[in-house]
Write a structure and sequence with these properties.
Structural class: alpha/beta
Largest sheet: 5 strands, parallel
Order of helices and strands: EHEHEHHEHEHH
Number of domains: 1
Number of strands: 5
CATH class: Alpha Beta
Radius of gyration: 17 Å
Number of helices: 7
Strand content: 5-15%
Helix content: 25-40%
CATH architecture: 3-Layer(aba) Sandwich
Length: 226
C-alpha cells in the first residue's frame, strides 16, 4: 500500500493526494522543478500539502533541463503565457514537450527503489484537447512501458483517478475529502496573486464557480466564467 504521488502543488494533484491519503496509502510525495515561471510558489505549495498530510517521505527533483529544451511559455520567458480560450483545440503554448513522460520515468525509478507499486498523478482528460500527455490512452500505454522496462517483481501501475472527471467534479471531490485548497497553486504566470486569466486559473475559477464554493486563494482578477 505504498504509492508515489506526483504533487505539483496544483488543484488536481492536491485532490489526488487527498484521495490517496483517504484510501490509506503510505504516500511518498514527488515534486519536480523544471524551470517553470512559478516554481517557487509551486514548491511552497508542495511542502504545505505534504505537511498537511504528514507526508515524511519526499523527493524534490531538479529537471531544469526541460527549461533548457524550451518550447513552452511556462519555461521560456520570451514566449507569452496566453489567456484562456475554452474553445481552443490546438496545443497551447503552455504545453511543455513530453513533460509528463519525463515526470513518470522519475517516479517509476523511485518506486522501484522504495517498493511502491502505485503512482498517482492528477491528469485530467478534459485538458487533453490541448495537452496530449493528459489523455487516458497515454497512461494506458505508459503502464505497458513500465511493465516492459522495470524488474518483473515490481508490478508498478499508474493511477489516474481524476482522468474522466470535469474540473467542477474535482472541486466537489476535494471538498468531500476536505482538501486544503488554500495551499494549492495553479497560476501559470504569477507567484504573487494568481492572475485569474491564464488557462489554468480560468479552468480552476470556472470549476469553483460552477460548484458555488469560493476559491480560497488570492487573485488579481476573478472573471465570471459561467
Amino acid at each position: 500500500m505504498r504509492a508515489v504521488v506526483l504533487i505539483s502543488g496544483g488543484m488536481d494533484s492536491l485532490v489526488v493526494a487527498a484521495q490517496a491519503n483517504f484510501l490509506g496509502y503510505d504516500i511518498a510525495a514527488m515534486h519536480v522543478n523544471y524551470g517553470q515561471r512559478t516554481w517557487q510558489k509551486e514548491l511552497m505549495a508542495f511542502r504545505r500539502i505534504c505537511s498537511h498530510y504528514g507526508i515524511e517521505r519526499k523527493l524534490e527533483v531538479d529537471a531544469s533541463f526541460l527549461a533548457h529544451v524550451g518550447g513552452s511559455s511556462l519555461t521560456d520567458s520570451s514566449i507569452p503565457v496566453e489567456n484562456a480560450d475554452f474553445d481552443a483545440l490546438e496545443v497551447p503554448t503552455s504545453y511543455v514537450p513530453f513533460r509528463n513522460a519525463n515526470f513518470l520515468s522519475m517516479a517509476v525509478s523511485w518506486s522501484e527503489v522504495i517498493g511502491a507499486n502505485k503512482i498517482f498523478i492528477g491528469a485530467v482528460e478534459e485538458d487533453a484537447a490541448g495537452y496530449p500527455d493528459c489523455r487516458k490512452v497515454f497512461y494506458e500505454a505508459y503502464n505497458k512501458v513500465i511493465h516492459l522496462g522495470s524488474k518483473p517483481d515490481t508490478a508498478i501501475e499508474i493511477q489516474t483517478p481524476l482522468i474522466e472527471m470535469r474540473k467542477s467534479e474535482i472541486v466537489k471531490k476535494g471538498i468531500d475529502l476536505e482538501a486544503p485548497f488554500q495551499y494549492s497553486w495553479s497560476c501559470y504566470k504569477s507567484e504573487g496573486k494568481a492572475c485569474g486569466v491564464c488557462d489554468s486559473c480560468a479552468r480552476r475559477l470556472r470549476a469553483f464557480q460552477q460548484v458555488g464554493f469560493p476559491d480560497p486563494i488570492d487573485y488579481d482578477e476573478r472573471p465570471d466564467y459561467i
